[in-house]
Specification:
alpha+beta; MHC_I-like_Ag-recog; 2 domains; membrane; MHC_class-I_related; glycoprotein; 34% helix; Immunoglobulin-like; transmembrane; eight-stranded antiparallel sheet
Length: 357
């Protein structure tokens, strides 16, 4: 079972993002979706899945070889029990939320994302804990004030309940600032050969037709932290630029594209270049937009071939129209002149497929 998870990607430069690592857990409970688990949990380190549980298999399982090798059966059994308990809580939470929003049937989704970040150069840490319902924010923990934020009126009851539980609030802060960081460092050490590696991307400039946007496509890089942007005459260029999402490849590396809408006349007289910056790789990867750098299936022979095909189709269409016209003319010439019908009955029955408007 595949679970799609949207993760926030910090758009920072190498100096500030190269040493930032994260541990996060995503819980998803669903209601009204057939043939789909009612509850799913995924643990991630630096965006890479390390553990998985759902309400069908009902056991916590490793998603990395190094996790399976370093953690024994006791660990996976304890995590299974934690996920089973969370499953029961989340099923109850959906029922409570449906009551508060005056909902009965239909599809509903409750999600939770919590975790921490650590910069191994500066030592700075951060933590977060937030719940969502049906795709919108429901409640979140403010680590600085140790209070809960309720953007929805339906969440105010929960906010007052959790704010009043001082012991739970202190435990929450301790986990996000201490315990979570300790586990993150432990996992990074377990999987350092995978998680701490850097892979340089392959960068290509792609274009469908001469009038299509030029795409700068970076693929095969690791880790996922990346910036792909255009420059014009050495300055960052944002006009007519569309940024795509960072996607994961089958081999665990990542890809990302950025599209520039510009005419051939413009980029031939002005220097445009695509700049790719990847976390952990100090030097920028720069590709200058030139005709020789663009990869495309479009060329002059394509245009000539299409023009010939279109011309042949027009000739065939004209020939068919002429032939049909001759046949109709011959039939009419044999019957003589037939006046148009003026009765209501004839006009209604003349074409059952055509209705009056």
């Amino acid at each position: 079972m595949k679970c799609v998870i949207l993760l926030l990607l910090g758009m920072a430069l190498h100096s500030s993002s190269a040493a930032t690592h994260s541990l996060r857990y995503v819980y998803t409970a669903t209601s009204g979706i057939p043939d789909f688990p009612d509850f799913v949990t995924v643990g991630l380190v630096n965006g890479e899945p390390i553990s998985y549980y759902d309400s069908i298999i009902r056991r916590e399982t490793p998603r990395q070889d190094w996790m399976a090798k370093t953690e024994g059966s006791d660990y996976w059994e304890s995590q299974t029990q934690v996920s089973i308990g969370a499953e029961q809580s989340f099923k109850a939470n959906i029922d409570i939320a449906k009551q508060r929003f005056n909902q009965t049937g239909g599809v509903h989704i409750s999600q939770r994302m919590y975790g921490c970040e650590w910069n191994d150069e500066t030592g700075a840490t951060g933590g977060y804990f937030q719940d969502g319902y049906d795709g919108e924010d429901f409640i979140a923990f403010d680590l600085k004030t140790k209070t809960w934020i309720a953007p929805k009126p339906q969440a105010v009851i929960t906010k007052h309940k959790w704010d009043s539980n001082i012991g739970q609030t202190e435990q929450q802060k301790n986990y996000l600032t201490q315990e979570c960081i300790e586990w993150l460092k432990k996992y990074l050490d377990y999987g350092k050969s995978t998680l701490m590696r850097t892979v340089r991307p392959s960068v290509s400039l792609l274009q469908k037709t001469p009038s299509s946007p030029v795409t700068c496509h970076a693929t095969g890089f690791y880790p996922s932290g990346v910036m792909v942007f255009w420059q014009k005459d050495g300055q960052d260029h944002h006009e007519d630029v569309e940024h795509g999402e960072t996607l994961q490849n089958d081999d665990g590396t990542f890809q990302k594209s950025t599209h520039l809408t510009v005419t051939p006349e413009e980029w031939k007289k002005t220097q445009y270049q695509c700049v790719v910056q990847v976390t952990g790789i100090k030097e920028d990867i720069i590709t200058v937009l030139t005709e020789s750098e663009i990869k495309t299936n479009w060329n002059a022979s394509n245009f000539v071939l299409i023009a010939v095909v279109v011309a042949l189709l027009v000739i065939v269409a004209v020939a068919v129209a002429v032939a049909v016209g001759v046949v109709i003319w011959k039939k009419k010439s044999k019957k003589g002149f037939v006046p148009a019908s003026t009765s209501d009955t004839d006009s209604e029955n003349s074409g059952k497929g055509a209705q009056k408007i």
